[in-house]
């Protein structure tokens, strides 16, 4: 189940209204307004669910549900389904819930998540914590990397703790992930989880022909989180190589890497010539042409030693481009043009 919309499912072509798929235990996924129901629609929805789950519901119950949830369909669904699952009355369920805080929509959500957390076993808790570290979609094969049993995985999917995004991809809702990430950050296993996550994304990057860029960058992120700099460098080196082989375009579009790259230890970067090329480009961007040229020359030499003709040609091209853009050559070209 989900307690608040992340970005919603935009369905502008059909209705022009932003909606999100919310209920958890229902037999089918429905779409609701992100901002919640008005009072009339909330009352109808509560009556519909109570009838479906054969729960007695008084006018007072309906009023209390609306007050405590501020008519949010996620929380309404959870309350009624929880009553049905536990065989308890709505009155008892409602008495144990905090009111929905309009200034901070996480209040009720956190309460409901804490109630669920108490009933999970160790393997389920670990699965939640580990999957909460994933910032981008993942596939079912992730269970082979994280040692999650098929039974636990099926349970997570069945109750929509993780949701399908099509094409075999899954994602944990951001609010749920945030809740479990707070537990993961305190676990002694978090470094091991980051490393397994990094390995998963690295393998996915090597297998993928379309989404390889995001997979490599996620692998780099998780290795960096646990200070495994050599692995993080190897991942990035491989990514830049893939970009040139596939797109034949400069890799300068890779986001947020300049500071990390320029601080990288020389002993590590010398073993990764594609990183040297990237470092040279970053140096050019900050008008450090001399050091940039050294990076291109060193990369060219390393590629030659590795008998990598393609890498050598790219490095040589960067050298020539750098020379043509130097202040001396710019002046010469301007004089020739005159």
Descriptive notes:
The model is unreliable at 1-32 and 332-338 (pLDDT under 50). The chain has 18 helices and 6 strands. α6 (122-131) packs across α9 (174-184) and α15 (273-285) packs antiparallel against α16 (289-305). It has helices at residues 39-52, 59-69, 73-86, 90-95, 106-117, 122-131, 142-146, 150-158, 174-184, 190-207, 212-225, 229-247, 258-263, 266-269, 273-285, 289-305, 309-324, 327-337, and strands at 9-11, 17-21, 31-33, 138-139, 162-166, 169-172. It is mostly helical. The strands form 2 sheets. It has a 3-stranded antiparallel β-sheet, with no helix packed on it. Strands 4-6-5 form a 3-stranded antiparallel β-sheet. The N and C termini lie far apart (71 Å).
Number of strands: 6
Q: Within the largest sheet, what's the order of strands?
A: 1-2-3
Mean pLDDT: 77
Radius of gyration: 27 Å
Q: Structural class of the secondary elements?
A: mainly alpha
* Major β-sheet annotation: 3 strands, antiparallel
- The best one-word shape is elongated
Q: In percent terms, what proportion of residues is strand?
A: 5-15%
Poorly predicted parts: 1-32, 332-338
H/E series, N to C? EEEHHHHHHEHHEEHHHHHHHHHH
**How many DSSP H or I helices?**
18
End-to-end span in angstroms? 71 Å
